[in-house]
């Protein structure tokens, strides 16, 4: 999912301020890559290693983008899977993806991705990046190739560090704090470069034989969330806002690209006064062993849907006013402190990780009278604290405790393992809300990763990669194919570069 | 799916023409039901049988609505399932529905529906309607309870006939050609009746203790398809246009209801000059044993997705310009004429039904130079006829025939049974397009089927049923739970009536 949010402030670009020494520059490259997340960096490295002159633009002051906060990449049938005897075949992966996404996704591109995913991990490993396959929850396949190390750094940051080293070594010219502002077209409508500008007032006119867009999603722009994704930006919030404003999609559509389908990489979560993002208390919101109720005090889902963070977000969003409460008790607190969490938040809070600070964080949240966390010594009091009808909450707790007693959830069939009765003498509740890590989609591409125009013809010289690409996922992200978005970034970046080189011949 | 389209013209309401004898009428009822499809008729019958005075309004000149064209109802664990030893449990049905719809659907209402579905069939059977469970394709569960007979009529028309008889017997006052025009609210915002008008210029002010909306979908209004469903009405077309304009949704939102999520009951199909709807040639468009290519001449899906008509529609819609071609040859024609179809179009063209007129319909389509059907005596000629790049089509046919030869579809993993090589000396192609039978959704309701306002509070006196109800399906209709929409109509109609009566006490 996401890591090290504290880094983000450091590399989000500062506002432009014109400088007296600013100048207009004319540059040229074989391949211009826009955006230095894992998609853009991989494209740049791949192209430069093939001997091409590459310029890489990044609007933020550091490389990495959303990938900086990711952890693992999707792959099927990799060397790492082989050593674990993971049973998933490429055939089953393809079929399951098509089925899970209701055949709204692109079968050809999905097939290519599944087929090429393992080789992609091997290529990255060839650059010194180490991987391990992790199953984050029992509801997913063993597709998640987590970066275990690159020179002392793991997860997304490790991948980015490795790719940046490779880019430097291969001679990629990286310009930070320098967003592309528009694409340059020739008379035939082919893309032949882009304009860019930095905060010192320098402007750049960069000619290139191909432009590879890798600017990521648009989820940090609420207007686009509303107009492009038709989702309520009040109900769905960006969990890692780092300036994802769909710049590549905007530039490409101005250059004639069609607007494609858009989706979200959604997940459950919480927020509130005194609740630390990814802290011990935060981690309780992802647990399957609680009782979930909505603002009417009614239970609304089998709570083990928490094992599928995207589906869990849907379930929460579907409730009145788009939120819920996760109710647990002291025995759960003790369990999480001593035995650790049942459902990991990726590998940031891995399965089984103990939450030693949980009691303290609970006490702190109580002290500051958190709006996202409540405690009570009876169901009646809890109903009051949560502002839900007491009769409904009483019924929900009673039915739930009865289900725990007999070991069968006749209401929503939650797995017996997570049916743990609530001691109503001391109850806790943490608010549940729906978030998205990023949007996923915006531009239609073909199997060569070329951007398509409104007549579905490729725009010569223009490629799109990673989170900008439509029809890789349906409206609900599949957590079953763990690492799908992060894996697709480098996979599509590399193959866009290879195809761009091929087209130049 | 749908039956007897020829009936439709007869009962779509004529334009209004004012009549000199027209008058204003004041009527009253315990329960006013708006719309006389299976949801409205069932609500009316249930309420009248409980001794309530019921008025039933229908804007068309005949009862039935979309149900007239449907065939079977969803149910799990019915008496009919018992006699077939069908293995599906209610637990598995619930879990599968939640999973298939990505938890965007309402778990509580879904649970209620699954639990109550069998009893609903029994209740209908108690009114003389006969059922049989049919598995339409190998990709679905045995949930489809097809109406086998009601006094000589089967399918949706049989159900409607049975319900209409029951309504008449129970004393329901049915007014045809009389659309409700607006809801009447009291000072507290509760619904206390509705206004209506007929084509003779009569107007009606009907007071009622409860109003049950059962006006069906909005799919025949392209503006609503665009604005409510955010789908391109050029790419998605209504297959059975009978005046489904979302009247109930419009009236309810004017009365303060929130607009909920909307979906489609989508399916694949074809159209073109000389192609008879549901004819022998039409039926070939639903077959898994053909080769499907898009307008670029590229194969785009495992063709056995035809077994899931909603997913097949998605796959076709996802192609450039939203269409494709299904290519087959003479051996397939012979197969369909002698052994019958592999994939049924519901029970209208059931699995195994022979297509005796296929050769004649092919000849006729050729004679009229159909835009939806092409024939050629080589791949090169077919490419020309279809207007697709020859090289791509050659490659698609070659790869496909190779897959047939070795009995393994390495591209999209179509089941071996349906890999039948094409004789390129004589090829046929029928156009594939995406349709929807109806929209599904529009109003948020609670477990009592009460319509919810923007604060998620029930609007007193107002109920919604059937295709008007949100959050029963996700963006893609599930053909796995065959009969879901048709089953929900009578199920929700009945329970809305029972709850309305309960609220009156």
Automatic annotation (TrEMBL), chains A, B:
Residue intervals of the FAD-dependent oxidoreductase 2 FAD-binding domain: 30-477
Record-linked InterPro entries: FAD-dep_OxRdtase_2_FAD-bd, FAD-oxidoreductase_2, FAD/NAD-bd_sf, Succ_DH/fumarate_Rdtase_cat_sf
One Pfam family from the record: FAD_binding_2
Signal peptide extent: 1-22
GO biological process: steroid metabolic process
Keywords, alphabetical: FAD, Flavoprotein, Oxidoreductase, Signal
Cofactor (UniProt): FAD
GO molecular function annotation: oxidoreductase activity
Name this protein carries in UniProt: FAD binding domain protein
Natural source organism: Parasutterella excrementihominis YIT 11859
């Amino acid at each position: 999912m996401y890591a090290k949010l504290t880094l983000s402030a450091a590399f989000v670009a500062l506002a432009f301020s014109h400088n007296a020494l600013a100048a207009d520059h004319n540059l040229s490259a074989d391949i211009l890559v826009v955006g230095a997340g894992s998609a853009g960096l991989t494209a740049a490295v791949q192209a430069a290693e093939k001997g091409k002159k590459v310029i890489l633009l990044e609007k933020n002051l550091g490389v990495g983008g959303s990938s900086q906060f990711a952890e693992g990449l999707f792959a099927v049938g990799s060397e790492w899977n082989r050593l674990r005897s993971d049973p998933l075949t490429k055939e089953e992966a393809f079929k399951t993806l098509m089925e899970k996404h209701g055949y709204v996704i692109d079968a050809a591109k999905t097939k290519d991705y599944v087929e090429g995913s393992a080789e992609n991990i091997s290529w990255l490993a060839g650059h010194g990046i180490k991987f391990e396959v992790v199953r984050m929850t029992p509801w997913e396949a063993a597709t998640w190739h987590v970066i275990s190390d690159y020179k002392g750094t793991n997860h997304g940051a490790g991948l980015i560090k490795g790719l940046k080293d490779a880019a430097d070594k291969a001679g990629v010219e990286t310009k930070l704090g320098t967003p592309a502002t528009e694409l340059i077209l020739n008379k035939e409508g082919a893309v032949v470069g882009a304009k860019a500008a930095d905060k010192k007032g320098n402007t750049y006119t960069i000619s290139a034989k191909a432009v590879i867009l890798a600017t990521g999603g648009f989820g940090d722009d609420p207007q686009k969330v509303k107009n492009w994704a038709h989702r309520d930006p009040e109900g769905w919030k960006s969990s890692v806002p780092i300036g994802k404003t769909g710049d590549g999609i905007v530039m490409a559509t101005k250059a004639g690209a069609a607007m494609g389908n858009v989706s979200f990489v959604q997940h459950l979560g919480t927020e509130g006064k005194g609740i630390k993002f990814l802290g011990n208390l935060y981690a309780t919101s992802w647990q399957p062993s609680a009782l979930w109720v909505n603002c009417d005090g009614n239970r609304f889902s089998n709570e083990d849907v928490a094992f599928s963070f995207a589906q869990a977000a849907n379930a929460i969003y579907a409730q009145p006013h788009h939120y819920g409460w996760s109710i647990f008790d002291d025995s759960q607190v003790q369990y999480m402190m001593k035995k650790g969490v049942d459902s990991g938040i990726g590998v940031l809070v891995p399965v089984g990780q103990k939450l030693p600070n949980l009691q303290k964080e609970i006490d702190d949240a109580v002290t500051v009278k958190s709006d996202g966390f409540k405690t009570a010594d009876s169901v009646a009091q809890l109903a009051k604290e949560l502002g839900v009808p007491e009769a409904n909450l009483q019924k929900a707790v009673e039915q739930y405790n009865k289900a725990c007693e007999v070991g069968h959830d006749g209401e929503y069939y939650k797995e017996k393992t997570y049916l743990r009765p609530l001691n109503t003498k001391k109850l806790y509740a943490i608010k549940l809300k729906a978030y998205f890590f990023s949007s996923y989609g915006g531009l239609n591409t073909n199997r060569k990763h070329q951007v398509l125009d409104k007549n579905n013809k490729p725009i010569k010289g223009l490629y799109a990669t990673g989170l900008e690409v439509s029809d890789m996922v349906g409206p609900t992200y599949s957590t079953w194919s763990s690492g799908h978005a992060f894996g697709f970034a480098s996979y599509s970046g590399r193959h866009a570069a290879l195809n761009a080189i091929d087209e130049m011949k």
